[in-house]
Design a protein that fits this description.
It is built from 29 helices and eleven strands. It is an alpha+beta fold.
Length: about 775
């Protein structure tokens, strides 16, 4: 074990140098710490329909950048001045890009000016296709110009004398303004986040800036009320909840660990050294995650706070055994096995396909390794100088052991079999939860405001779409047209309940037809020439310039991607190219009869209803089943390893401890009607690691049964405290882990004590014979 300590010393030096260099470089460069709060890190990848799922994920990421503000005045008042003031206030925030109606109108003007020869409204197409004379069409255009309901001239007269392109301008504007028309006393302002992710500090600063902008407008319009909606506000609220969890867990865990160690050893060194190991472990883990992932997710920090109760175990076991005169060799063997089993448990979190839990796995494993190295290298230097003060602990030990004394040899095996059978049986009949709310519980205040905004604007379903696929643009347009025809023929559905690119952007084929049809406008003796004559204007140079522009535009039709590029972030990613073709994603207005929609889509190979919640549920179920199989495989591998390592069948009793804990966890959840979810299954891996940890010390250090039992009790107490605090978190992922580990690790503690007693009885029987 001298060799082990030498290797550990070299690795510890490397860890310290790495950590120091990382923090020095970060400090000198002035780079901000990136604490991510992105809720998408809590959503699993969808194993099915990968191409469609990835495209929809891209759209959802795009939509999640949007923030909608509603400013409301008393009925009868015009909210536009207040809305303009709010737009200006929000535009001054660097992290926001505010899409004003004026900007959208400018974009539309530029688009139509460039593409005007390839655009016609359905009415204009019909007029040209009917074979009406040029003069008749010109007369109709003059009547429309001077009618009371005439369309305003927004495209310059010199390029749009008929006013036809201005009509298209207003038609497109109505298409882009996809929300229901608001009354005059309500004004909406749309904004987009300029960054895809914000650190915790950046998020807090942006939230403060938004609140300040809203207050400044309300000061100008005291009778106004401002509401906002967007994923950003959910993430900000979740970050605040997580910050409270971090503070509570860190403070209570730290204080309790210090109190327990000082109570047992009554020495400052017994407190300072574990705190040093915690500090090194967290610092190294933070650096590793920051380098590997470019930042640290807030959920990782929450779990990191609970790591206090885990990394301190190595110090506790070392102090107890060294102060009692225990052998360093057997202690280090037990510590090494303890580390390996814990690493197996935490590394399994990476199997969940959730980015946030992958970070937790890296963070926890790195933290435990750093703390373990420090304990193995440094603890023997002064651990033997400590003296145990176990008066209160001995009395607690005696009280706990009273029921254990009734346990006969072999009872642990019987209890384990019963627990496993009960757990397996109940897991089959107990309802399983694959709800997305297993990831995230929305803040009630944010949810209420979001629902209020949705009620006003009557917007679209947040994560439900119709997806049209095709090999090329022509195929997608044909399938989209067929879909809208079927909707129009349905008694339960309306075309106005859907929004897609194909509704307001003509296909390449239609653009060519529109270009050819407009030849009747600009040719000699055409509609424009007659129109000028009816107005008493000499067409002269103006007509010649229009004819030249028409000729030069031949072959300059734009595909959908080029068309959408005019609008930047003003239009979501509803049209996407993939390796397998093109996708047209159609938004669905809230309140649409989805069963009627599914009937319309039935039998179509190229049109389908995509519901993110169903995809998430399928992913959760698949991952839970996969994790369950991996858990069984892990038990088998651990059992085989222990059998080979200790070379005695009695070592398999170590595996019975976490088996009891996992089985009773399922039983307790069943009794309280708690649906099992993926995170309960992932927690079972940690139960395996912690149970093996306690069992290995009980088995390896059975020659020091009293001290080992006391060390396991203190170690379990710190872990139970940390996980118990997780159980009261408002974040469902953390809450699920907390309750599962609190219940199962309590059983792990009792199982380790029973195993220690049975080993002691077995040794006594062998010594008497």
């Amino acid at each position: 074990m001298v060799k082990l300590r030498s290797i550990a010393a070299a690795l510890l030096l490397a860890v310290i140098i790495f950590s120091v260099c990382f923090y020095v470089v970060r400090g000198v460069s002035g780079q901000p710490w990136q604490i991510d709060t992105d809720l998408r890190s809590l959503v699993p990848s969808t194993p099915q329909q990968q191409v469609v799922a990835k495209s929809v994920d891209h759209l959802l990421a795009d939509l999640q950048q949007n923030i909608l503000f509603l400013i409301t005045l008393p009925a009868g008042l015009d909210a536009e001045p207040a809305g303009v003031a709010l737009t200006q206030a929000l535009a001054d925030i660097p992290a926001l890009s505010v899409t004003s109606e004026q900007q959208l109108q400018t974009q539309l003007t530029s688009l139509i000016t460039r593409s005007r020869f390839y655009l016609l409204t359905p009415e204009q197409r019909a007029m040209l296709a009917q074979g009406s004379s040029a003069k008749a069409i010109a007369q109709r255009a003059v009547q429309d110009r001077y009618a009371l309901s005439a369309t305003p001239q927004v495209i310059p007269f010199e390029i749009d004398p008929l006013g036809w392109y201005s009509q298209q301008w207003f038609g497109l504007l109505a298409g882009f303004q996809s929300n229901q028309a608001l009354p005059d006393h309500i004004y909406s302002v749309s904004a987009q986040l300029t960054a895809t992710t914000f650190g915790m500090q950046g998020q807090a600063e942006l939230l403060q800036s938004i609140e300040a902008a809203e207050r400044s407008v309300k000061a100008l319009y005291p009778n106004s009320s401002i509401q906002h909606s967007g994923v950003f506000f959910y993430a900000a609220a979740a970050a605040e909840e997580s910050k409270r969890d971090i503070t509570r867990i860190s403070l209570i865990s730290g204080v309790t660990v210090v109190a327990l160690l000082f109570m047992v050893f009554r020495a400052i060194s017994s407190v300072l050294f574990p705190l040093l190991s915690i500090t090194l472990g967290v610092a190294f883990a933070f650096a590793c995650v920051h380098i590997a992932f470019g930042g640290v997710h807030i959920l990782t920090v929450v779990f990191g706070a609970s790591l206090i109760g885990i990394v301190v175990d190595y110090s506790i076991h070392s102090f107890f055994h060294l102060s009692d005169g225990g052998e360093t060799r057997s202690l280090h063997r037990a510590l090494l096995l303890s580390l390996v089993t814990s690493l197996v448990g935490y590394a399994a979190l990476g199997l969940s396909h959730l980015p946030a839990l992958s970070q937790v796995a890296v963070f926890s494993c790195a933290g435990m390794i750093a703390a373990w190295l420090l304990v193995v290298v440094v603890a023997p230097g002064f651990g033997r100088q400590l003296q145990l003060k176990t008066g209160a602990l001995a009395r607690l030990q005696k009280w706990i052991n009273k029921p254990v004394l009734w346990c006969k040899p072999g009872w642990l095996s019987v209890v384990a079999v019963v627990c496993v059978l009960a757990g397996l049986t109940l897991s089959q009949v107990q309802p399983n939860s694959a709800s997305p709310f297993a990831f995230f519980k929305p803040n009630p205040a944010v949810l209420a405001m979001d629902q209020a905004v949705a009620k006003q604007i009557q917007g679209f379903e947040p994560a439900t779409f119709v997806v049209i696929t095709g090999q090329d643009e022509s195929a997608v347009y044909e399938q989209s047209q067929l879909f809208y025809e079927q909707v129009a023929n349905s008694d339960q559905l309306s075309v106005d309940d859907f929004f897609s690119v194909t509704q307001w952007r003509p296909s390449i084929k239609q653009q060519r037809l529109d270009y050819q049809s407009q030849q009747a406008l600009y040719q000699p003796g055409g509609v424009v020439e007659h129109y000028y004559q009816l107005l008493g204007i000499n067409p002269g140079v103006a007509l010649a310039e229009m004819q030249t522009a028409y000729g030069e535009a031949d072959g300059q039709q734009t595909d959908t991607s080029q068309w959408l590029s005019f609008f930047g972030t003003s239009v979501p990613a509803l049209w996407q190219k993939t390796d397998q073709g093109l996708l047209n994603i159609i938004l669905i207005r809230q309140g649409v009869d989805l069963s009627a929609l599914q009937s319309v889509l039935a039998g179509s190979e190229r049109a389908s209803l995509f519901r993110s919640i169903e995809q998430t549920q399928q992913a959760l179920t698949a991952q839970k089943n996969s994790a369950s199989l991996m858990l069984l495989l892990a038990y088998g591998c651990v059992g085989l390893f222990l059998l080979v390592y200790f070379r005695h069948v009695s070592a398999l009793a170590i595996v019975l401890i976490p088996m009891c804990g996992t089985g009773l966890m399922v039983v307790v959840f069943s009794l309280f009607a708690v649906p099992l979810n993926l995170f309960h299954t992932m927690a079972a891996f940690l139960v395996l690691g912690l149970g093996l940890d306690y069992g290995i010390f009980a088995y390896q250090m059975r020659g020091h049964q009293r001290v080992t039992e006391q060390a396991v009790m203190i170690s379990a107490a710190t872990s139970l405290l940390s996980f118990g605090l997780l159980a009261f978190s408002q974040v469902p992922v953390v809450n699920s882990f907390g309750w599962a580990l609190l219940i199962a690790n309590t059983v792990n503690l009792l199982g380790a004590i029973v195993l220690g007693r049975q080993l002691k009885v077995a040794n006594e029987l062998r010594s008497t014979h």
